[in-house]
């Protein structure tokens, strides 16, 4: 069995991680500021040049086409379009993305456009960022411009990437831009304003004829220890369980408001929830078309004899990525099932990949057997999810097309199918690039 004729095969990137190009009117984002803080980034690195995609985008589009991919997920740099976040459009920045979209379409590659992949304009952060209720209006203005500029050619949009990381890492732990460590009251205010921003943009983008809109979530998912009904239900319940100590790390904290128009019941038991306008939840739950999930690792649980949910520890010696993340392909089967069961929407896997210690061998090639094993094992489980006849995996986007700036890790972590020599910008397709190409050619049938 393969994945069906309408399945999207693609790769994913993010603007700050690959573009570079701090020119032609681009303004500063919170990541430009954060990378200049001493000790914030490994080895003091930054994304000023990154993969120089701003100048080498044609070569990168050719690499995507060489995979036989029919889709490409990328983000817009908000400050490339609006250097101050609002106000006058930067035409040079807008034209860059227009050329990129046209080149993708010419090669039969469907653009999946993300509006926000963590790069809040610094000028708006200085006005409070997600703590300012006006962020919904700022983001809505930006979305209107995106719809006007690209809505004649782009039909697939994601509003915000990984809000769990945006707020959990950026507003709670302070390890990502803007580097803040707020208490619960501010965290929940930022959460609500972020969701209002999502809803505002979703309404705008749904005004494009034929547009499909969602947002990209992350967070732990849980697989059952056995296929007993008790264990399956335990895994489902744990995947969406609300955590009062860390509500920002949970899938349901963000997705229940978007799909159901209400927060999880336990949210309302918190002491610090912000006041909400009467129409806020209607805005937040503006209709969306799919669930997008970024998944790298998960956990396994079972139903204990007393009815509680017991998490199983990974066996000693279980494989991990260079990031220290557990390699758990079985979660790729169960996560889409849980999501479809709860929200009833088709599921895109919008990020999945592995960091490895990749280098160019003496034969001029990059032999990344670990990534090949990872890719095959995760995709076999995704195919198993599709084979149940109920779950609707609609696409898979490998993270990432090429090695890039991995946030606080700098350039230490290499996630790409294509090796990048950051001193010369030379691109070298890894062995995994050709493996993924062959998987796409067979539509997953040869896994």
Describe what this molecule looks like in 3D.
By secondary structure, this protein is of the alpha/beta class. The chain contains 15 helices and 13 strands. Helix content is 37%, strand content 15%. The chain has one domain (8-441): Glycosidases (TIM Barrel), CATH 3.20.20.80. Helix 8 (163-172) runs antiparallel to helix 9 (184-205). The protein is globular. The protein has an eight-stranded parallel β-barrel, surrounded by seven helices.
Care to count the β-strands? 13
What's the alpha carbon Rg, rounded to whole Å? 21 Å
The SSE order reads: EHHHEHHEHHEHHEEHHHEEEHEHEEEH
By helix and strand content, what is the structural category? alpha/beta
CATH architecture: Alpha-Beta Barrel
CATH class: Alpha Beta
At the fourth level of CATH, the homologous superfamily is: Glycosidases
Major sheet: order of its strands? 1-2-3-4-5-7-10-11
Q: Judging from the principal axes of the Cα atoms, what is the shape?
A: globular
What name does the CATH topology carry?
TIM Barrel
Q: End-to-end span in angstroms?
A: 9 Å
Number of domains: 1
Outline the biggest β-sheet.
8 strands, parallel, barrel
Runs with pLDDT <50, length 5+?
A: none
Average pLDDT confidence is 98
Q: Estimate the helix proportion, in percent.
A: 25-40%
């Amino acid at each position: 069995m393969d994945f069906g004729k309408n399945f999207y095969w693609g790769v994913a990137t993010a603007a700050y991680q690959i573009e570079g190009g701090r020119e032609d009117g681009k303004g500063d984002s919170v990541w430009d500021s954060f990378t200049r803080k001493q000790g914030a980034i490994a080895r003091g690195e930054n994304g000023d040049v990154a993969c120089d995609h701003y100048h080498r985008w044609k070569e990168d589009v050719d690499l995507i086409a060489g995979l036989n991919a029919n889709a490409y997920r990328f983000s817009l740099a908000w400050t490339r379009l609006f250097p101050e976040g609002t106000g006058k459009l930067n035409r040079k920045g807008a034209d860059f993305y227009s050329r990129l979209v046209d080149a993708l379409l010419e090669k039969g590659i469907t653009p999946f456009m993300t509006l926000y992949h963590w790069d809040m304009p610094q000028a708006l952060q200085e006005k409070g960022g997600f703590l300012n209720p006006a962020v919904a209006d700022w983001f809505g203005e930006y979305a209107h411009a995106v719809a006007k500029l690209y809505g004649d050619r782009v039909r697939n949009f994601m509003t915000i990437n990984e809000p769990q990381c945006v707020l959990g890492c950026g507003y709670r732990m302070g390890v990502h831009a803007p580097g803040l460590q707020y208490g619960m009251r501010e965290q929940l205010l930022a959460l609500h304003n972020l969701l209002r921003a999502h809803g505002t943009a979703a309404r705008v983008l749904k005004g494009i004829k034929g547009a499909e809109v969602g947002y990209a979530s992350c967070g732990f998912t849980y697989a059952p220890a056995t296929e007993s009904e008790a264990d399956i239900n335990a895994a489902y319940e744990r995947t969406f369980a609300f955590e009062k100590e860390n509500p920002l790390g949970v899938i349901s904290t963000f997705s229940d408001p978007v799909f159901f128009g209400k927060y999880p019941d336990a949210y309302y038991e918190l002491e610090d929830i912000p006041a909400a306008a009467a129409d806020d939840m209607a805005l937040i739950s503006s209709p969306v078309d799919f669930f997008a999930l970024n998944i790298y690792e998960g956990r396994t649980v079972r139903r204990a004899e007393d009815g509680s949910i017991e998490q199983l520890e990974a066996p000693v010696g279980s494989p991990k990525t260079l990031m220290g993340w557990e390699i758990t392909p079985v979660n790729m089967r169960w996560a889409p099932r849980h999501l479809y069961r709860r929200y009833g929407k088709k599921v895109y896997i919008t990020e999945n990949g592995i960091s490895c210690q990749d280098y160019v061998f003496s034969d001029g090639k990059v032999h990344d057997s670990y990534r090949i094993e990872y890719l095959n094992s995760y995709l076999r489980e995704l195919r198993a999810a599709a084979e149940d006849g109920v779950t609707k995996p609609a696409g898979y986007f490998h993270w990432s097309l090429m090695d890039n700036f991995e946030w606080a890790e700098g350039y230490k972590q290499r996630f790409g199918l294509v090796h990048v020599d950051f001193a010369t910008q030379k691109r070298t397709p890894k062995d995994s690039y050709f493996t993924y190409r062959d998987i796409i050619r067979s539509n997953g049938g040869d896994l």
